[in-house]
């Protein structure tokens, strides 16, 4: 097998320019990161969605920088060659430009990220400029931004009306001018995504539930494999039901231990007769 090269920003921009869709998934742990890298995924997002998918919170808001760093380090160990993006959690960048730069720096220095992502548009331009100024590649995130889910009135499509759509177009331009290398559009109408993608000059556009016209696609890993029990968003396609496979395996384990068909001799270790007799003598 040929050794995979480290994915870099110029490689991603080239893919976008060549019309080759960029592949991107969320990931939060070492073994999954290993598999994603083997599968040839270009980018991994250690999303603050880990608060829901891995830690069982109701939203992403309780996730801390320390949670993010711990998971991102594990992912980097499993996938040393992918372009790794750390997702800035709630209140790690909102309070001030300095807070934003320091926390973006932690992702790079402590977790080996290649870049970071934050949510928000025009109101985040000074944070973006500060982070870019510190030499850290940053991605924007518009449309449905889960950290503002309460203000947005729930997990719903954003930019369906012309005025709201115009605001998203303006936000995308503002982020681009501030220096983001990419923008994620989550749950905006496909025509809006196409329009923003066509207008992007200095950054590439990624889609999560926003249609086919972006430069690449993102999915939440747990949604792809039936691993999140609370709900399945409409935009997610199930590529395999790992949740069902694991549940059936767990039920079989409970059954086999209960009826004493597990373990079998190949699942445990013996001791030779001489040693065993000697042991019995010693105990006597
Ligand atoms: O945290 C996350 O996984 C994200 C995605 C929903 C885009 O930000």
What would you say this structure looks like, in words?
The structure is a single chain. Helix content is 44%, strand content 13%. With 284 residues, it is an alpha/beta fold. The protein folds into 2 domains: 232 residues, Phosphoenolpyruvate-binding domains (TIM Barrel, Alpha-Beta Barrel), CATH 3.20.20; 39 residues, no CATH class. The protein has an 8-stranded parallel β-barrel with strand order 1-2-3-4-5-6-7-8, surrounded by 6 helices. The structure holds 3-methyl-2-oxobutanoic acid. 3-methyl-2-oxobutanoic acid binds next to strand 6.
Q: Enumerate the distinct ligands.
A: 3-methyl-2-oxobutanoic acid
**CATH third-level topology of the largest domain:** TIM Barrel
Number of domains: 2
Mean of residue pLDDT values:
97
Distance between the first and last residues' Cα: 58 Å
CATH class call of the largest domain: Alpha Beta
Total number of β-strand segments?
A: 8
| Alpha plus pi helix count | 12
- How would you sum up the global shape? elongated
Report the CATH architecture of the largest domain: Alpha-Beta Barrel
In sequence order, what are the helices and strands, one letter per element? Answer: HEHEHHEHEHEHHEHEEHHH
Main beta sheet strand tally, sense and closure:
8 strands, parallel, barrel
């Amino acid at each position: 097998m040929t050794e995979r090269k480290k994915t870099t920003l110029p490689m991603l921009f080239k893919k976008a320019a060549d019309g080759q869709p960029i592949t991107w998934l969320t990931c939060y742990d070492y073994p999954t990161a290993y598999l994603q890298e083997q599968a040839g995924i270009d980018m991994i997002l250690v999303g603050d969605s880990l608060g829901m998918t891995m830690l069982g919170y109701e939203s992403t808001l309780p996730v801390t920088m320390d949670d993010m760093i711990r998971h991102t380090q594990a992912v980097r160990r499993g996938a040393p060659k992918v372009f790794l993006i750390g997702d800035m959690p709630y209140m790690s960048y909102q309070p001030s430009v300095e807070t934003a730069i320091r926390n973006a720096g932690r992702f790079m220095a402590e977790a080996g990220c290649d870049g970071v992502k934050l949510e928000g548009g025009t109101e985040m331009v000074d944070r973006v400029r500060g982070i870019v100024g510190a030499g850290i590649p940053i991605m924007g995130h518009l449309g449905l931004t889960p950290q503002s889910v309460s203000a947005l009135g729930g997990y719903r499509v954003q930019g369906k009306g012309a005025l709201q759509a115009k605001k998203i177009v303006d936000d995308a331009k503002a982020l681009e001018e501030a220096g983001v290398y990419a923008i994620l559009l989550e749950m905006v109408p496909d025509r809006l995504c196409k329009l923003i993608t066509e207008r992007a000059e200095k950054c590439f556009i990624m889609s999560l539930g926003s249609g086919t016209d972006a430069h690449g696609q993102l999915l939440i890993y747990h949604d792809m494999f039936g691993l999140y029990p609370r709900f399945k968003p409409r935009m997610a396609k199930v590529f395999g039901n790992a949740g069902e496979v694991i549940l059936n395996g767990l039920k079989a384990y409970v059954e086999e231990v209960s009826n004493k068909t597990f373990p079998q001799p190949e699942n445990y270790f013996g001791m030779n007769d001489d040693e065993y007799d000697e042991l019995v003598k010693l105990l006597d």
